[in-house]
Amino acid sequence: MALTFVTSNLHKFKEVSELAVGRGMKITHHKLHYTEVQADDLEEIARLSVLEVCSKLGKPCFVEDAGLFVEALHGFPGPYSNYVFRTIGNSGVIKLMYGEENRQAEFRSAVGYCEPGKKPKIFVGKVAGEIAEEARGTAGFGFDPIFLPQEGDGRTFAEMSTSEKNRFSHRARAVDSFLSWFKEVKGWENDR
Q1: Is the peptide bond before 120 cis (omega within 30 degrees of 0)?
Q2: Is the pLDDT of residue 1 over 60?
Q3: What pLDDT, in 10s, does the model give residues 130-187?
Q4: Is the pTM above the cut of 0.85?
Q5: DSSP secondary structure, 47-97, as one string
Q6: What pLDDT, on a 0 to 100 scale, did the predictor assign at position 174?
Q7: How far is CA 55 from the centre of its chain?
Q8: Is 144 a catalytic residue?
Q9: Mean pLDDT score of the chain, rounded to an integer?
Q10: Which residues lie closer than 8 Å to 101 by C-beta, 6 or more apart?
């Protein structure tokens, strides 16, 4: 038995799978096209996305949506991070921050879990940090090369291994919350 994670992002799957293995659980990857909901709230995006995905698959599953919220940019790019990354990338965000003293930012994640015929459950996680002056590192994906987590040691997420990032990232916190709930409420064990 395994939990089904619906995502087209293999980097996310790797991070989430590593977290699950650490809890003695198994995650399977399912790539499925679903509507990219445009909303200002990550939780609402996760809720609507997992409802659609669960309906299409006809079985329990989960999704994850994340965003980078930059204080000086009034929360931009926020839930539009994927689009912003694809259009202007890390260099574009660094240009937007040129000369800005307030470099505070926060990565947020929302995991949505749903079973057929039931309401979705949402689990959130976040990590505070700041935008680096330049992109650094080759690990990770998305805005990882420009995000310096507050709890870190001066390295960007892209300068950390997956296991290092999973110690305190926004995604790790949301997924850990979900997996803890799932294991407790569902009494799930990998050997069933």
Answers
A1: no
A2: no
A3: 999 999 999 989 999 999 999 989 999 999 999 999 999 999 999 999 999 998 887 7
A4: yes
A5: HHHHHHHHHHHTS-EEEEEEEEEEGGGTT-EETTHHHHHHHTHHHHHHHHT
A6: 98
A7: 22
A8: no
A9: 94
A10: none
**Which tokens sit at 183?**
């294991």
Report the pLDDT value the prediction gives residue 191, as an integer from 0 to 100.
Answer: 40
The pLDDT of residue 192 is 39
Per DSSP, the residues of 2-15 read -EEEE-S-HHHHHH
The tokens of 156 are what?
């960007």
Q: Is CATH 1.10.10.10 the classification given to domain 3-186? A: no
In 3D space, the residue among 37, 66, 49 whose CA is nearest the CA of residue 6 turns out to be: 49
Q: Choose among 13, 67, 74, 12: nearest CA to 37.
A: 67
Band of the pLDDT at 188, cuts 50, 70, 90? low
Counting other chains too, the contacts that 84-87 makes at CB distance below 8 Å and 24 or more residues apart are: 85/142, 85/143
Tell me the residue type at 80.
Answer: Y
Cα separation, 106 vs 76, in Å, equals: 11
Boundaries of every domain in the chain: 3-186
Catalytic residue among 40, 41, 65, 153: 65
With H, G, I as helix, E, B as strand and everything else as coil, classify residue 46.
Answer: helix
Q: Cβ neighbours of residue 72 under 8 Å, at least 6 residues apart?
A: 97, 100, 102, 103, 104
